[in-house]
Prior knowledge:
The chain is mainly β.
Amino acid sequence: xxxxxxxxxxxxxxxxxxxxxxxxxxxxxxxxxxxxxxxxxxxxxxxxxxxxxxxxxxxxxxxxxxxxxxxxxxxxxxxxxxxxxxxxxxxxxxxxxxxxxxxxxxxxxxxxxxxxxxxxxxxxxxxxxxxxxxxxxxxxxxxxxxxxxxxxxxxxxxxxxxxxxxxxxxxxxxxxxxxxxxxxxxxxxxxxxxxxxxxxxxxxxxxxxxxxxxxxxxxxxxxxxxxxxxxxxxxxxxxxxxxxxxxxxxxxxxxxxxxxxxxxxxxxxxxxxxxxxxxxxxxxxxxxxxxxxxxxxxxxxxxxxxxxxxxxxxxxxxxxxxxxxxxxxxxxxxxxxxxxxxxxxxxxxxxxxxxxxxxxxxxxxxxxxxxxxxxxxxxxxxxxxxxxxxxxxxxxxxxxxxxxxxxxxxxxxxxxxxxxxxxxxxxxxxxxxxxxxxxxxxxxxxxxxxxxxxxxxxxxxxxxxxxxxxxxxxxxxxxxxxxxxxxxxxxxxxxxxxxxxxxxxxxxxxxxxxxxxxxxxxxxxxxxxxxxxxxxxxxxxxxxxxxxxxxxxxxxxxxxxxxxxxxxxxxxxxxxxxxxxxxxxxxxxxxxxxxxxxxxxxxxxxxxxxxxxxxxxxxxxxxxxxxxxxxxxxxxxxx
Length: 639
């Protein structure tokens, strides 16, 4: 059979002198309708990867953000599955066009997959453009035991939902005119490759300049986790800071290429229904930075976003006249931890590392889902302190954690909501190359709190009701924060999710009127129970004692009658919006607790119907809804 060969991509040239050398490892395809490249005379032994068209539900993924359909394409092996959206099947979000990874999940030991909590990620060419892939081909289906490869290609097009120039100008900042909605004379090809035993997809992108003049451009990556996940970046930690700076060269570490910038990935780690889920985009371009807008994280490759904002940045990549530029990235599918993404990065790029592990307990009992973060304090006098957050992990069912770290001196601290710290000051550790280090933490026992709520009627029996529970007081063990260019990010989790000062606990009680049992740090607090403005408020001072359970019987009454009126909310976002991670069940629970009668969802570009959620929660007699959507061309308002 005649073999077809892909063109070898040229090197990418950065104007400040950095040369990015990437070789596309593509396999030759066969000119037949069959994608079986095994010409050997027998099935190859060992594990395989697979590339194929999705033919039914068994080829797809499930989860709150699973967007795949029959006719999309998948890559999978024994560790993971990713879905590539079929070109021409458009989807509202940052990836308007097909050809991008739209769903991803890790395979469990029993062969099942974790739920998908990834919206999408796309390459930004010259910031405001992205590939509009119109062609897709399976270059190797993996049947020969070699990496399975799917390639997509097409011209550039505009990114609609996130207009970076408008976002910058809304801050009073400048934006490079050369990058503002400019049509480019380029064709783009991206090949997705999955080896049989890898836990990551290799993305090789080649941009061809079809003009007779050199083409200077910026390169960025747009990422939207959107599900029950939190964004993590080395140095910054958790959250979506408006701007981050490039990591200084003194933080670079030893790798197979010499010295590598350890701030070369962005991860999403799952929580709640997303537990066990993590994703990461790893790149090879040092001195990169980021900005965030509308729930989207944007990596600016090889460039300081601060220089772009201040108007002093020139495009730092150049495509030769009638030439090519190549870019390699890796999409890692982890086990729920940012540290797993870092471990895979270390493996891919040959980082020198040691290993840190240990167990988190409370009075000897293992604690699951405790946070363990490794960091360095750069400036303890800023508010909050300025830290370089290196890695983060959560403990398993046995209270254990493990991670690989570059050699160096670090601080490490464990934290779990409702528990005091083992020590107020973090542990100091020294990690050596190829050395294993153990650091355990034993947290003091918390107290326990349970609240029951009834509505009192003057002429009828009391009834349990949904309600909002707040604990007023001072958190004796607040989670650590980090200072990123004056904004607060989280060391243990997204700082945007933290409660207001003086409110250490907020929970929503369902129609049973009986709360879960909550772990609370010992101390003095006030319990506040409410159900919106039409009901009275219950208050009681309490003292939480370590190892003891405090039970509260709260009573509220309706104090304002509103006959022929409906308490409603007509602007409601949930997990289907690119900038929200609140699940549908959580959204209904909050409205029940606030005493609402009716609401309409308004997710960006998504027609959302909460009827099934309300029926599943058995609360159709308490709250109503109607399907709705919000049309969101971000430059022109929301409708």
